Amino acid sequence: MASPSTVKTLSPSDPHAITEALNPKTTKYEFAGPLGALAVSVLTPGLLYVFHLTCSELAGGCPPPLLSLPSTLQSTRWLNALWDTNAFFVYLGWYAYCVLCWKLIPGDWVQGTTLRTGEKKLYKINGFSTGLLTLGLVAGTIYRNGPLAFLYIYDHWLALVSASVVFAIFQACAVYALSFRKGALLALGGNTGNVLYDWFIGRELNPSFSWLDNINFDLKTFNEVRPGLILWMLNDISCMCEQMVRRGRHAWPTDSMILINLFHGLYVLESLWYEKNILTQMDITTDGFGFMLAIGDLAWVPFSYALQARYLAFTPRELGWTLSTIVCILNFVGYYVFRTANSDKDAFRNGKNPKNFKTLKTKRGTELMISGLWGMSRHPNYWGDLMMGLAWCMTTGFNTPITYFYIAYFTVLLVHRAMRDDEMCRKKYGDDWTEYKKIVKWRIIPYIY
Ligand code: NDP
């Protein structure tokens, strides 16, 4: 922990020497290059609308009868739902509220990893307090005025999706343009010279804005934990309110709705509690900030991850004790694996080894754990995350495949992420990585993958 005045941070106004040597040209594409970038840029927001076309009352079911699709697409209700200027300003208000909380709520200032310039940035950690304050305000509103008072999100879902997509496009364009200013530190993977690709993957490593002296508002970490993650919880709560209103004045939500809110809420709050751990993740240390992260953080996470709760709002379903117990066991065992693996790695990377894990020494100077969960697979935390994801999908029962999209998508995301990490570790560790892979054979799930 450090105080803002004691550590020198990078600021866009610093005319320090970020030379061309620090920002080499990127020679290798990821995501299948510009065409892949185009495909993901269109598909990601596109899918958010497809979820509504294939799973909503507006569309006529989940999935709706195939023949109803053309008439849904032509219906004015659908078109009107796509855009609402008031909803756009509500969304901007939400983002501004998150910025204000970042600025006003006290928090620790924590150093990030060492940048290529040799310096370290400072990050304000108060995401958990922001999350608690927001939940408190929402709970107070619902307690005082009933669930009817918190239906805005559910009622304006598509318009809010559009607002977040437009804002993500705006942010990606703005940071791309600003990355050409003198002194900007670029991401090693985002400087190909291809406009579309660099805009998508992120040209500048850490776009940030100096608000006070040397205190930086870092857009990438801010977006990663606050406006999207907390909104995801609010989206779920709004769906729960919708279900309660439908079920009658004094009705409780269904067990499935309570569980999905509990599981998602726990996941979000614990991400906020461990906010500083993201500072060592590849999104922050390696990836630039472009459309990929902007759309992911602002639109994809809050609106696609809440699909199960939205489905349960208009298709209430009681799981019963047996299925509820199975789903809870899956979620909490997954959580145990996820949390233990992440905490073991964080402690180990901070120079502690309280569980006396066996280690492999590397020429790079750092060690790799080869026993405990990290001796069973190379990404045990992904394996726990996947178990939780499956439990979330199962809260919706087995009547539709659409609410299982999350686990299919998340599997692809984590397999791809494991491949990217493997490539980076091969470069970092050389032969030692090959040796490590001989000892820890499984990539994510022991004996399966
Ligand atoms: P990891 O936490 O697996 O970190 C990978 C890094 O850990 C490697 O680059 C290496 O870096 C270090 N490492 C690898 N093996 C070992 C070892 N045996 N011993 C010690 N260090 C090791 O990956 P992520 O950062 O991708 O994921 C973090 C968490 O975020 C996970 O729980 C994941 O599930 C979650 N996540 C969630 C997403 C969501 O949308 N919900 C999206 C993406 C991730 P080095 O050696 O340089 O320290």
TrEMBL record:
**What are the record's GO terms for cellular component?**
endoplasmic reticulum membrane
PANTHER family noted in UniProt: DELTA(14)-STEROL REDUCTASE, DELTA(14)-STEROL REDUCTASE TM7SF2
Tell me what topology the record assigns in the membrane.
Multi-pass membrane protein
> What's a GO biological-process term for it?
ergosterol biosynthetic process
Protein name, as recorded: Delta(14)-sterol reductase ERG24
Say which domain of life the source belongs to. Answer: Eukaryota
Transmembrane residue ranges: 31-51, 88-105, 125-144, 156-178, 250-269, 289-307, 319-338
| Keywords on record | Lipid biosynthesis, Lipid metabolism, Membrane, NADP, Oxidoreductase, Steroid biosynthesis, Steroid metabolism, Sterol biosynthesis, Sterol metabolism, Transmembrane, Transmembrane helix
Q: Which reaction does it catalyse?
A: 4,4-dimethyl-5alpha-cholesta-8,24-dien-3beta-ol + NADP(+) = 4,4-dimethyl-5alpha-cholesta-8,14,24-trien-3beta-ol + NADPH + H(+)
- EC number(s) for this protein? 1.3.1.70
Q: Which family does the record assign?
A: Belongs to the ERG4/ERG24 family.
Which pathway does this polypeptide act in?
A: Steroid biosynthesis; zymosterol biosynthesis; zymosterol from lanosterol: step 2/6
Q: What is its main location?
A: membrane
| One Pfam family in the UniProt entry | ERG4_ERG24
* EC class of the enzyme, as a word: oxidoreductase
Q: Which InterPro entries match?
A: ERG24_DHCR-like (IPR001171), Sterol_reductase_CS (IPR018083)
**Cellular compartment(s):** Membrane
> Which GO molecular function terms does the record list?
Delta14-sterol reductase activity
